[in-house]
Amino acid sequence: MGNQTNQKSWDVIIIGAGIIGMSIAWKLAQKKLQVLVLERNEAGREASYASAGMLAPYTEAEEDTPLLRLAIASREIYPTFLREIESETGMSANYRDEGALFLALDEHEAKALVSRFEWQQKMGFTVERLQGRELQVAEPALSPAIQLALFYPGDHQLDNRAWLAALQAALKKRGVEIRTGSPVHRLINEGGRVVGVEAQGKNLSARVTVLAAGSWSPEIETGSGESIPVYPTRGQIVAVRSPQSGSGTHPLLRHTLRYEGGYVAVFPEGRLLLGGTMEDVGYCKANTVDAMQRILARAIDFAPPLASCEFVEAWSGLRPNTRDHLPILGRSSCDGLVYATGHFRNGILLTPITATAISELIVDGQTTVDLAPFSIERFQGER
Ligand SMILES: Cc1cc2nc3c(=O)[nH]c(=O)nc-3n(C[C@H](O)[C@H](O)[C@H](O)COP(=O)(O)OP(=O)(O)OC[C@H]3O[C@@H](n4cnc5c(N)ncnc54)[C@H](O)[C@@H]3O)c2cc1C
Q: Among 32, 90, 316, 369, which lies 20 to 30 A Cα-Cα from 231?
């Protein structure tokens, strides 16, 4: 400690400059805290960059869970959250609110959609059944063979890469340093309290440290004795461009399409993202021929004109998954340490609520949303 007395200290150090780490940093900077973000590589180039930008609490939901409640709350505050950053920076994340269509091609899929419709309607969600002519009018590029569709006006979409760029610009404007090429190996513990981190052989001190390192979170030695059961689940995406693009609005599809095992996300300038796989293959980010073939074939089954689109690129990313697929949000048992990781399939959607809740926890000591279901405590005592 003695030789560190004249070193700079921060209110909060955040490990990881993905969408989660950067959005928390922005919220804290808004509340006038001194924040440092440490990023092992480049800012915003992992899962957050690889994502498809869907803000889809309703089409993602399979049952009523605390995650669904959190996701709906996040979607509801998204436009306001985003508008603040857009107006600070003059940059747009191309938020779209045309809604999403969940599609069924065969009887088995249609049956699953009917039961989805029934429980979601009972929950009071806004969901509409579309078929035949009505569906063709809503989305003319869809196959006439589609048996049933559910329309979700509450599922929205944005361009996650534009969103990351705006967030980075907002942090710069507020004077928040993102130190890239700075991997954190371990946290510094003193008397059962985390007082900072060790990065590149230097000790950096902070009142609070936030662990937001996505799929790599368990690699960091926290000294808390807590197990962090986060692991990577690979998702592959194929990006194509509509042949008639160029007018600003998308000529081929207006709505995000969802179906069993995949989706088509609508991006600006005629870009469409076809996804996505769910593969537990460790930290491998390869694209495989087999997966790309399946992604393309399935998307074309639902929207045949996709076959004449131009291939743009393919990539994959690592979703930070957890054993129960819920994020890990909130305090560690060790003072001075806060978790914001494990956002799995919904980290872009959950950004506003995570940033709001974690900043409230740090600044006010309490949160307006209940983080109890997402506590790291739920994993302790497990093997
Ligand atoms: C193919 C795909 C499609 C997806 N589609 C959607 C979607 O449509 N909608 C949605 O809501 N979500 C989607 N997701 C999920 C979403 O992308 C993630 O949940 C979210 O990006 C997680 O954000 P993060 O900031 O926690 O992680 P990341 O973006 O992975 O960021 C973590 C950061 O921490 C850094 N880091 C790691 N270790 C260290 C260390 N030791 N020291 C310093 N820095 C470190 C990493 O380099 C990285 O930059 C998708 C994910 C994938 C892969």
A: 369
Residue whose Cα lies nearest atom 18 of ligand 1: it is 347
Q: What is the pLDDT along the chain (383 residues), one digit of tens a residue?
A: 334 445 789 999 999 999 999 999 999 999 999 999 999 999 999 999 999 999 999 999 999 999 999 999 999 999 999 999 999 999 999 999 999 999 999 999 999 999 999 999 999 999 999 999 999 999 999 999 999 999 999 999 999 999 999 999 999 999 999 999 999 999 999 998 999 999 989 999 999 999 999 999 999 999 999 999 999 999 999 999 998 655 544 579 999 999 999 999 999 889 999 998 999 999 999 999 999 999 999 999 999 999 999 999 999 999 999 999 999 999 999 999 999 999 999 999 999 999 999 999 999 999 999 999 999 999 987 65
Tell how far the Cα of 320 is from the centroid of ligand 1, in angstroms. 7
The atom number, within ligand 1, closest to the CA of 277 reads: 1
Domain spans of the chain? 2-49+162-229+324-379, 99-156+231-322
Q: Rounded to an integer, what distance in angstroms lies between the CA atom of residue 22 and that of residue 168?
A: 7
Q: Which CATH number fits domain 99-156+231-322: 3.40.50.300, 3.30.9.10, 3.40.50.1000, 1.20.120.1200?
A: 3.30.9.10
CA-based end-to-end distance of the chain:
36
Q: Tell me whether strands 100-104 and 256-259 are parallel, antiparallel or unpaired.
A: parallel
Cα 173 to averaged position of ligand 1 atoms, centre (Å): 23
3-state secondary structure of 88: helix
Sign of the C-alpha dihedral computed for residues 194, 198, 203 and 209 taken in this order: negative
Class of domain 2-49+162-229+324-379: alpha beta
Q: Which residue owns the Cα nearest ligand 1 atom 3?
A: 51
Which mutation among 348, 354, 358 tests ligand 1's pocket best, with the greatest number of atoms within 8 A of CB? Answer: 348
Q: How far is the CA of 7 from the centre of ligand 1 (A)?
A: 31
12 forms bridges with which residues in the sheet?
35, 208
